[in-house]
């Protein structure tokens, strides 16, 4: 058995330092309750840019630029000490942490943002870093395209875990890349919610015969900073839920064992029998005995993509 915690809390939107400290405090709290694997929502640091779904494409230019500038300044640079409090909390509590971040590229132009999810092990090290392959619709005005570098399943004390972000879970080949690596706990930080999305999560659990941990974004108007530009036009209702969350835990048989947690903040701590991810594959193992490699094959390019390659004068 493994004890997992799904965190459905609002961050300090557009405030990296306070959100990182908040996450570290949450890790300490749920670890004290026995949690071994702790999952945070999509783009938790410093918050999912929900405003993109309300701004007019090509319009609201000044507001878009102001918000993007603040997001850029508060995005995570993985070559810095930005995540040091979270990494220290993971190490001191000997827990595994999966967290969605807005990542600022530190290798190429240094100004591109990515929707990324990182896995931190019990020693406080980042052991996987996945960038969302295809930002959805207006997300492409915020985030660059990811690559296959982070399509990995990682061994942890609670089992073999992997992550896809939001609508990546609609990409059959991305899912299959994780199934083929023996995933036992499929982690899905997401901005989506509702019955249709929950059905997708149940389908993935049945298809991959794995546990699915869906971690939703819960955000209210009151969670936005006081100086949020044009807030009265974008979010005119004082007590409005911008996104309801919808976190859930689903067994390898597609059964919802906890959640969905909707229009509510907090966390879910659930004991799961990880062994079910193996025993339930007796009848269906889509990347094993139910596969047909003589008919279908999948090739995954895990190379980190870059727009430039430098050669020295000797070639």
Q: Distance N terminus to C terminus?
A: 54 Å
DSSP, total strands: 13
Low-confidence stretches: none
Q: What proportion of the residues form beta strands (DSSP E)?
A: 25-35%
Query: What is the fold-level CATH name, i.e. the topology?
Result: Nitrilase/N-carbamoyl-D-aminoacid amidohydrolase
Structural domain tally: 1
Question: Which class in CATH terms?
Answer: Alpha Beta
Looking at the overall shape, the CATH architecture is 4-Layer Sandwich
Query: Helical content, roughly?
Result: 10-25%
Main sheet properties: 7 strands, mixed
The number of distinct helices, counting runs of at least 4 residues, comes to: 7
* Class computed from helices, strands and strand pairing: alpha/beta
What's the CATH H-level homologous superfamily? Carbon-nitrogen hydrolase
| Shape, principal axes of CA atoms | globular
What is the rounded Rg? 19 Å
Structural commentary:
- The protein is of the alpha/beta class.
- The protein has one domain: Carbon-nitrogen hydrolase (Nitrilase/N-carbamoyl-D-aminoacid amidohydrolase, 4-Layer Sandwich).
- The chain is built from seven helices and 13 strands.
- It has helices at residues 16-32, 61-73, 84-93, 172-179, 195-208, 231-234, 276-279, and strands spanning 2-8, 37-39, 96-104, 113-120, 126-131, 154-156, 159-163, 185-190, 211-216, 218-220, 241-250, 256-262, 266-272.
- It starts with a strand and ends in a 36-residue tail after the last helix.
- The mean pLDDT is 95.
Q: What brief labels describe this structure?
A:
7-stranded mixed beta sheet; 6-stranded mixed beta sheet; alpha/beta; Nitrilase/N-carbamoyl-D-aminoacid amidohydrolase; 315 residues
């Amino acid at each position: 058995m493994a004890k997992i915690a799904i965190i459905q809390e609002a961050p300090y939107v557009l405030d990296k330092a306070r959100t990182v400290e908040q996450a570290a405090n949450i890790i300490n709290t749920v670890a004290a309750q026995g949690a071994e694997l702790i999952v945070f929502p999509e783009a938790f640091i410093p918050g999912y840019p929900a405003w993109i779904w309300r701004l007019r494409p090509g319009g609201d230019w000044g507001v878009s630029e102001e918000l993007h500038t603040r997001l850029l300044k508060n995005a995570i640079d993985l070559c810095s000490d930005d995540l040091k409090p979270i990494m220290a909390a993971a190490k001191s509590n000997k827990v595994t942490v999966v967290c969605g971040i807005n990542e600022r590229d530190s290798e190429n132009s240094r100004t591109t943002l990515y929707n990324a999810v990182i896995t931190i092990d019990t020693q406080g090290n980042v052991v996987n870093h996945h960038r969302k392959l295809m930002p959805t619709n207006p997300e492409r005005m915020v985030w660059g395209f990811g690559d296959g570098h982070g399509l990995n399943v990682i061994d942890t004390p609670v089992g073999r875990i992997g992550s896809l972000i939001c609508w990546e879970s609609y990409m059959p080949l991305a899912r299959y890349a994780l199934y083929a690596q023996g995933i036992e706990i499929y982690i899905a930080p997401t901005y989506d919610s509702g019955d249709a999305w929950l059905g997708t999560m149940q389908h993935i659990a049945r298809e991959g015969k794995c546990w699915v941990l869906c971690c939703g974004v819960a955000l209210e108007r009151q969670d936005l900073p006081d100086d949020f530009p044009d807030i009265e036009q974008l979010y005119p209702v004082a007590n409005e839920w911008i996104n309801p969350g919808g976190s859930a835990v689903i067994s390898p048989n597609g059964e919802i064992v906890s959640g969905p947690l909707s229009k509510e903040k907090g966390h879910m701590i659930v004991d799961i029998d990880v062994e079910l991810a193996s025993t339930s594959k007796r009848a269906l193992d889509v990347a094993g005995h139910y596969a047909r490699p003589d008919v279908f094959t999948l090739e995954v390019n895990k190379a980190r993509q870059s727009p430039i390659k430098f050669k020295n004068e000797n070639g």
